[in-house]
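Item description
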Amino acid sequence: MIFSFRFSILCTIVVFALNVSAQVKKEHFEMRGVWVATVANIDWPSKAGLPTHQQKKEALNILDDIKSLGLNTVFLQVRASSDAIYPSDIEPWSSSLTGIAGQAPEPFYDPLKFWIDEAHLRGLQLHAWINPYRAQMNCTQPLPENHPANLHPEWFIQYANKLYFNPALEASKEHIIKVTQNIILNYQVDGIHMDDYFYPYPKAGEDFNDSINYNNYLLGNDSISRADWRRENVNKTIRDISDMIKQSNPEIAFGVSPFGVWRNISDDPQGSNSQAGVTNYDHLYADVTKWMKEGWIDYAIPQLYWHTEHPTVDFNTLANWWNDNSYGIPIYIGHALYKIGSEKAQWQNKTELPLQITSSRKLNNVKGNVFYSYKHFKRDLYQLQDTLKQSLYKEPKLAPYHYHESGKNTNTIYHVKANRRKAKWENRSSKENNIFIIYLKNTISNQTILYKTTGMNKIKLNKISKKRREKYALQVSSIDKYGRESELSTPIIFKL
C-alpha cells in the first residue's frame, strides 16, 4: 500500500512536470493567406463546366495544398461581378461554374458551403471575397434574365466595355448591403473581403459617366468637387456595410485589399514617397485611411505588388508607410506571387519574396501576409514553396481574430489517445467551429512547440527527429471564434 501510494504521487509529479506551461501566445497568431480567384477561372474551377465531383476534387486539393504550405486563411472569390458561387435569390449563378451564367451546378451542390466546411475541417479560416461595384466583365456577353442589370438597368454605368453599379445611387448601395448580409446570415464565413475595384481604374480618353448624378446632387447640396463627391459615395458604402455586419454578426471580420498606394507624397504630405501613376484616393476614389481611422474595416491588405528595388514604387517604402498609417487596424501585406519569374530581373531573384516576408515581420502593425493568387503555387517559384514549409512557415500559426469577448472557452478536451503516427480526442462543445491546437513537449529538452492546428478531432503525426524516436508529452486545446483558448487536456506520453 505504501509503495502504491508513493508510486501514485510520483506519477502525479511526472505528469504535472510534463504539462505545457504556456498556452497560445500573441506570437502564435499571424495572417498567412492566399487569394483563390473564381473570375475567368483563374484559380478555381480550373475551367467552366466541370462536373460537380471534379469541382469538389479540385477544391479539396487546393485546401490540402494550402494547409501543407503552412497557410491558415483562404480568401475565396464568391461574387466576382454581381453573380454568385452559391444559391442566391438576389443574383444569378456565376458562369465560372458551369460556363452558363445563371445555371446551377449539376448535380446540385452549394460550392460556398462546401469550401467553408472543408476549410474549417483543416483548421483554416475562410473569408468571402466580393467585388462591390463590378457587374459584368464584358458587355458583349448576354446576361441571365434575373441579373440586376436586366431588372434595374437604371442602376448601372457602362465603362471600358464593363458594367458597374453606379456608386452614387442609394439603390446600388442597398443592393450590395443586401448581398453581403445574405452571405453572413446564411454561411459561417470568417470574414467579408473586398478587393481594390471601387470606381474603375481609369481608361485614357473615357469618362465614367455620372455627370447627371453629380449635377443633381449639387442642386440640393453645398458645392463639393466631383472627386470628393465620389469618395463620399464609396465611404457611405463601406460605412453602411460595416454597420450592418456589426449589427448582424460582429464576429465576422470586414476587410479590404486596396491598391498599394493611398496617395503620392507629391499630392499629399501624408502620402508615401512614391510616384505611382494610379492611387486609391485620386483615381479609385477609395479613401482607405479614413476607413481605418473611423474603424469601419477590421483589416487592410494593401497590394504591394512591386519589388524591393523598384525606382518609383518601392516595396519596403510602401510597407513602412502602411505600417505607420494603420490607425490601429491590422495590416496584412499583399504579395505578387504571379510576378515571380517574370522578365524583370528582380522577380527572377529567389530571395525576393522571402525577403519581403521577413522584412514585413519586423513592422509592429503588420500582422501577416497574403499571396495572389493560388494557382502560382503550382509552378516553379524558385523553391518558395520549400522555403515556406521548411523555414518561414515551418511552425504553424493561427489566423488572427478581430473580435474578442470576455469570459472563458469552456470546451473540454478529453480521452486523448496517441500512438506512433496518430492522435485523436473528444470534446464537449460540438456546436462551435473549433480549431484544435496540438502541443508537444520533449520530455528530455523540455522544449514545447505548437505542433499543429486542425478542425478535426484527430491528426496524423509526423516524425520530428530523423535520428531516433523520442518521448513527447502531447496536449490538446481548442480556440473559439473569439480567439479564446480552452484549458489544455491532460498530457499523454508517447514516442514520436
Q: What stands out?
A: Confidence is low (pLDDT under 50) at residues 1-17. The chain has 13 helices and 18 strands. Residues 2-22+406-495 form a domain with the Immunoglobulin-like fold (CATH 2.60.40.10).
